[in-house]
Write the structure tokens for this entry.
Amino acid sequence: MARSQDDNLRLDKQLCFSLYSTSLAMGKLYKPMLEELGLTYPQYLMMLVLWEQDGITATDLSARLMQDKGALSPVIRRLESQGLIDRRRDPEDDRRVLILLSAAGKKLQQQAKDIPERVFCISELDEKTARKLKQQLDTLRDTLNTHL
């Protein structure tokens, strides 16, 4: 196989591939833990937001998750069919629909409580390194978003 003239085009030199493959590995790590809860990773992220702030709109949810509202609709429907959330008209503005945790959705939070710690332990990162890495990734994401 002929070697590329441009070393910068090597796969192992690509930041995007490191981020992508790390994301895949993280997804594989979370999968069995989330299966215990009956959740997919996108559902888990949505539940994390709702556990922080119950009773928000789909627009607010999409902003927090940095995803298009349309992409969240099937996830919302699935969580509702699982009995974990309810949708209700906002009593102050009936044009708005609020997404609320059901009793089962609130109870699920207790079952999910140990997942972050389990992931942290498996990562073998110390707290300072993990915090710094997260900060660097957040900064990179924010910088990239300014160019989109």
Observations:
- Helices lie at 15-37, 41-52, 58-65, 69-81, 103-112, 115-123, 127-145.
- The beta strands are 56-57, 85-90, 93-101.
